[in-house]
Design goal:
307 residues; alpha+beta; Tumour Suppressor Smad4; six-stranded antiparallel β-sheet; five-stranded mixed β-sheet; 33% helix; globular
Amino acid sequence: MFEAKTSRAPVAAEINPVLPATDSLKCYLVVVEGANLGAEHLLLKPDTVVGRTCESDILIDDDKVSRRHLQISLLTGGEGQRFQAKVIDLNSTNGVMVNGRRVKEAGIASGDRIRLGNTVIKFEARARSEVDYNERLYQQAVTDQLTGLFNKVAFYKELQQFASIAVRYHRCFSVMIIDLDNFKQINETFGAPIGDNVLKMIGFAFVNLLREQDIIGRLQDNQFAALLPETSIKEAILAAERMRAVIERTRFTSVGCTSHITASIGLAEFPAATKDLERLIIMARQAMQQAKKEGGNQVKTLDMITH
């Protein structure tokens, strides 16, 4: 007697080879269908939340994706482990599917496809030796080599992505333009190598002063920019004032040379000030320039200037 064959999508355990544990792998989520096609997200934490708001570790621009849709938890173990991670549905509205089958929780291995809303992400576990070279190339492309922050191109790319999401979901964010006051004098007094070391320390300070979800980049020389998701202009003023005060109090020492630095910071809010990104940056920069004209070491918005 013959049994009729039924057609169904294979599940993870049936289609994936046995791979070593995640301590010898680097795990990624790659967008293979939906917005931001081709984007790769390295899983840096044991538990990573995927959703459509900045509360999530990985942000997906998709109306059908819940605010906190699913969690990817990396697994550890010895050689021969079948699954490298598990996916957990965080009570999402539209559910989670792995290789075409709806799940609440399931083990996943390299090559498995996860659907959330209209987006499909592929889980990939790659041997560390295979990805180090590509990662170095990527880091060189997006990183300011002196400070380790985002470079100008990468920062503007992040800005465009956040603007798209903010428009779709009626959210806000604020932008800072930060210029170091009298930095030219440091280079002239102590030399460019000391100035470079000061910029490195300033970049490190910015990272520690901002939240994990904030984006910070170096635009040029001694000018930086920060993007603060889900932050109104009033909240951004408070954050900028904290940053300004800490920089003012800090003495930056390099090779026995101590520098006193202050910062002029200009702010603008999206979309309250404008929905045009170029105009948004111009407004924040104009506010920063006004702060410098008034003696520096200040936080300004265009509203402060016109009222």
